[in-house]
Each structure stands twice: as C-alpha cells, then as structure tokens.
Amino acid sequence: MASDAIEDLLQEGRTFPPPDAFKRAALQTSADIYDEAHADREGFWAREAAELDWFEEWDTILEWDAPHAKWFVGGKLNVSYNCLDRHIEAGHGDQVAFHWEGEPGDTRTITYTDLLADVSRAANGLKALGVEKGDRVAVYMPMIPELPVIMLACARIGAVHSVVFGGFSAAALRDRINDSDCKVLVTADGGYRRGSVAPLKPACDEALEDTPSIEKVLVVKRGDNDVEMVAGRDLWWHEHVDSQDATCEPESMDAEDLLYLLYTSGTTGKPKGIMHTTGGYLTQVAFTHRYVFDLKPDTDVYWCAADIGWVTGHSYIVYGPLANRATSVMYEGVPNHPEEDRFWDIIERYQVTQLYTAPTAIRAFMKWGDEHPAKHDLTSLRLLGTVGEPINPEAWIWYHQQIGGERCPIVDTWWQTETGGMMIAPLPGATTTKPGSATFPLPGISATIVDDKGEEVGVPGGGYLVLDQPWPSMLRGIWGDEQRFKDTYWSRFEGRYFAGDGAKRDADGYYWLLGRVDDVMNVSGHRLSTTEVESALVSHPSVAEAAVIGRADAQTGQAIAAFVTVRGGIEADEALATELRNHVATMISPIAKPASLLFTADLPKTRSGKIMRRLLKDIAEDKALGDTTTLADASIVDSIKDRYLSGND
Ligand code: WTA
User: Fold this and answer.
1) Which atom of ligand 1 is nearest to the CA of 391?
2) Taking the model in full, what pTM does it have?
3) Rounded to the nearest 10 degrees, what angle do helices 613-621 and 635-645 cross at?
4) How many CB atoms lie within 10 A of CB 134?
5) Average pLDDT for 276-297
C-alpha cells in the first residue's frame, strides 16, 4: 500500500435517489447544470451574479492571479439592498423574514419591511457613533434579532463586521478586536442558555480593559441581568438606535470591498481573520442556498439551527436566505430546553420545510431517544441538511428515518469558513445520495484529490482535498497576514487551495470527506482516518457517539485510542469494550482495531460542537492540557483524564 494514499477500508453501499414526490417539484432535476457550468465556469457564475441587483454592472468576471481572485471587477452593489429593499420593492414587504423564538418561549415575527426599518435605524445609529465605510465593528451577541440587524446595518454603510461567537472568552474577544482594530463593539447584557441568562457584558468589560481601538459599546437589553455601563463609552441600543431615522441610503460598494471578517482557528494558537468580500460572496451563498435547499420562497419555512457566530450562520441564516427572500426560523437557545423535543416542537409549530443542522446534534438526538421526535408531527419537512463534520452513515440513516420520514432528501454539505459557501453537496432533485458522502463538487466548483506530492490520485482513490479553480465566495486573505494566507492554503500544492481535509473518491466518483488531515492516523505504516473508525464504532447499536485519535506509540508509530459514549440503558463494561474493538476489526480491518477504548459520559467539544481531538490526544498521551476556553463543559476533560490514567489500557 502506497504510504501517500489514505486507505479506503470502510464501504457504504446504500444509495438514495431523489424521492419521486420531491423530484416532481424540485428546482433542479437534471445533471446538465454540471456540464453547462463546467463548459464555461465564469459564464455560469456571471449568470448567477446577474440574479442579484447591481447598481453598476461589472467589467470583468474574474481576475485570477493565484492566490488572489477578484470577481465581478468594477461591479457595484449593496448586500443589504439585495437582502431587503429589492424584495420590498417587488411587493414582498409583508413576507416574514424571521420567525424568531427566544429560549424562554418569547417570539418575534419580523417581516422584510420591519427588518429594513430596523437595519436602517441601526445603520444610522452606527453612523452617529462615527462608524464609516471600511471601519471594523466587533459583534458579540446571543442569537437575537439584533444580531442579523447589526450585520446588515454594517453592510448597508460599508462597515466591516467581525462577529465573535458569544461562547468565546473575554481573552478571545480581546484578541479578535485588537487584531483588526475594531472601532465599536455591539453586544447584549446577556442571552438565554439552558434556562438561565448567560451574561455577555462582563466579558466585554474585561476584554475592553485592553482594546485601545474601541470607542463605543452598544448594548442590547436581552437578559435583564445587572450590567455596568461605562459613562461616555457604553450606550443602550434601545436608547441610541430606536430613535434613529428608519431610512438610510445603502452605500454603493465595490464587488471586492470587504463585507466581513470571521476568525477561525488554525493549527497554531493565533486565530486567522478570514476576509470575505461583497459581490462574489453574495452570488455563491445565494446560489447554493437556493439550489442545495431547493428553496421556494413563497411557501417554504427554512431553518438553519446553527449559531450566527459561525460561518454557517453568516452564510445560511443571514446572507443566503435573505438574498433569496426566504422565510426563516431563528432560535436563541439549546435543543434540550425545556425538554429534548424542543427542535421537533419548533418544526411542528412553524411548519418548517427544511432543517439544516450538524451531525453532532443529530447524534445527540439519537442518544436522547426516538420518542422525542415521535411526539411531533414532522410532515412539513421536505429536505434535511448537515454540515460541519463528516456524518457517519448510522446517524444519516437515523436522520432519514426518524426525522425525514424516509421522504426527505439529505444534503450533506462540505465547505469551510474559508470557502464562504458550500462547495461539495448534492443537488437534491438531481443527485443520488449515499449516506456519509457529500457527493460531488457543486456546479461551478472544481475540486480534486491529490497525494503527498500533489499528483492526482484518480478514481477511486484517497488523499488530500484541493480546490483547483477559484470560486466566487473564496476567502480573499487573512486580515493583516498575507504570508500566513499563502503558507496555510497555497504553498503545500502550488497554485491550488489546500483545504486541510482528507478525502476519497469511490468508484462512482463520489467524494467522502475523511476529517482533517491532522486527524489522519498512521498505524504501522497504514494511514487510517479517524472518521472511518468512529463510523464503525457508531454503527454498533450500543454506541451513541465516538471519538478516535491516534496517540504516539513506540512500536506502531501511532495507536488508535477510542472514546465512546453509550446509548441510554446500555451497560458500559469490559465485555462491551472488547466487543466494540472486535466490531471495528470486523467492520474495517484488524489494523483499525482501537488499542484502547474508554467509556465516557460525554465528549469534549468546542461550543460549535466539534470534538476536540487535540485535547483527547493530549489526554491519551498525558501531555499538559492546552487552552480549553472553548469547551462546552470543561469538567468533562478532567473526568476523562482521571479515568484514562487510572489504567484503562
Ligand atoms: C469540516 C463549517 C465533512 C471539514 C462550514 C472542514 C465537513 C471544516 C463537512 C470546516 C462535511 C464541514 N463533511 N466534513 N459536510 N462540513 N466539515 O470552518 O473538516 O467551521 O474543513 O466551516 O469542517 O469548518 P468550519
């Protein structure tokens, strides 16, 4: 076996063509669109860009001087105009943009007309604080309507928003503010999580002790928790914004003007400020949102259950849906408050048609039990989506059966903060899906898989995923760090974008994402994906969730260490551990059998739900623990560590 290919051992044979009823009404039912886009990629994207309203037409579709792309050069537009005004001018002002629901059960219904007025007032409010075109505005908020409002307000006046997820620590907020010299911070007193108010303002106060660029802080009253307001610096939103004029002319922005920064973690500690611009970004998120979710704006109620603090929320709660005049659900809180059926209750009450969520959430729902979705009428759903990590086939099948009633196509969408929009995903009316595969690069997107030396591995074959043609919503750089931009993404395979993910294509050319390449293990010279071993574990009926890492081993290079959460009512004992290790051996190969297996009540995850493999690796190798401020429940780490060290091997 060549050492530069990732071994392809776990086979998934089931296929799901588009359901007939879905296909009959779908926007896109033919695969011709792939060929059309392939024949003239730039022309394809120009046709999609023309679906937006431009103040001035572009001169050149694409200028590509790797690694720098400029799309729709010379074109002028405004993102908030495209997301709001044009729909109202077309007679849809009374359509609901957001059915917002707070965790305690309070609701707000916001039409496109309401949203434009709110955005205009907020835009005027920002101007009154001295915010000008090109200035950076930090945003640190719960999932409340003022969050999309302030983002669109920035877009309206040409300011650049930098949203920092509300679960980040004061130090993380401070570093992000300082990296791009934000002028204003917009926050809230607090927001609801798990039945009580999680304060935000105190973390801001702590961060602001050391952020010389911040001049003003705008604070939304949400949690009603006690906060300190610093005279001359802090203003209440309801006092400053509500009294502003409800009209504000949208700024004419260049297609390549910066729309936002979003920080994402890399392999080193310092986060990267990923830069997204205006015209190409909006074109791709609108296109992908419409066709991957088969959006029918007149009748659908779409729900992306991500947090706007992550890129999924930027692209598929705010910009894509609003550009397409979607009616969306937006929910503030956690999925198990007050009960484990909160999502299914929301879907039933709002008659949600599309649900977009993460595999980690789906596995949690599986663990909580089938009775929760079973209590609700979910027949309004007609499509399901996933994002954020590879979905193991068992979770896919559960989602398909228990949530989708076997009638909804599932779109598994691969993309990244850096790609801005979806890249590899099915077209639900045209593509036959396979559980666990994101299927094919979307029309207009070109990807391939290469080995260590940058040679294409062919079909079937596994290796590193690269994007070998520019795409409209691609990152334009890392804020203030051109060298890191080149080094991280463009130097490993000259002229091609290195995504950092392992992938394989099966004999039919389907793409299977195998996790980050740092998660690829090397056991006795065999390269194995953590995802494949995890999938094998989770396919066992006793397992709810599993995480696998390769820990250093003197003999084999790396040894596989598994961390497993069992389903409710299952006894986690030595016999089961043996059975599971043998199960992996049967499902994949004896070389994939975990050397150690630890049962744990929960797995350490970032707030966005990604399993913190690095931390598990440290536990397995007993290194000093790194920064755990993004952990959802930091105590999990200690309990895993204690048990691991008390002789599980
Ligand atoms: C992973 C989230 C497999 C992948 C939009 C990627 C996925 C990273 C999928 C980006 C998927 C995302 N299948 N893996 N459908 N979607 N990933 O920047 O490792 O938070 O590189 O963007 O998540 O995470 P990010």
Assistant:
1) 13
2) 0.87
3) 30
4) 11
5) 98
